[in-house]
User: What shape does this take?
Amino acid sequence: MTGRWMALIAMALSLVLLPACPGPEKPPPAGPVFPVAPADYPRFADDLPPDSLMEAVSQSLTYLSRLPSDRAFSIAGDAYTAGQMLRGLNGFLSFLKTRPGAAALDGYIRKHFAVYRSAGRETTGRVLFTGYFEPMLAGRLAPEGPFRHPVYGTPEDLAVVDLGEFSEKLAGQKIIGRVSGRTFAPYHDRAAIEGEGVLEGKAPALAWVADKVGLFFLHIQGSGKIALPDGRTLNVHYDAKNGRPYRSIGQVLIDEGRVPLSEMSMQAIKAHLAAHPEEVDRILNANPSYIFF
Assistant: This one.
């Protein structure tokens, strides 16, 4: 591919990854990113469900709302403040909620965005953009009101056994569990940890959150942020797991006919669980895997 594009809302810094634009190879300019004239805009499109773009914009709004409104960002020599970015993103989110078609989305970006192109690696013009989503949950450092779901650190009784130390045939294989009496047993599954409180006094609670479903997806993602009421942010990252096999709860909902395969997404799972709170524990516990931070 000859290039990938980033769009920037006029007077707001909203970076949007868009499809590659075919065309002749051109030597890149001296800088890593440069503005593109409207006459040279590619066709803008999104090949994912619209909810995914709205979720991305919402997460950006959550992040930007925590910054001083005059915090400046720069791209290709142009400066934008967090306040300008918030206004632009709020307008974009309102537009996306109208469920625009492909032509309308393309037209909105052309009208409201300034577009920049990455020069690419060396002289090839080839660019690889990657993204990593970190969920942010509101939390407390002690249980308080609805904040009763612990974000656990690694338990003191969690043990990892290298089977290669017992047999060369098992080199590279490990099992995770705990000592129970005179035997080595599998570690507690999600249902026992969340429903029976088996980790109380055995694992440090790094924080407490109110959103149980959000905590589940924090486990899936493997890292994230806990926003504290005093404005601080606690960063949590994967440290260990309970050794139980992972099972997709999305597949559970598909198999049960609750959500069609064509509509399956993280947003669809969250929407289903919000509409059926009585099923939350059963559905989440269908995945016995558990992550510690």
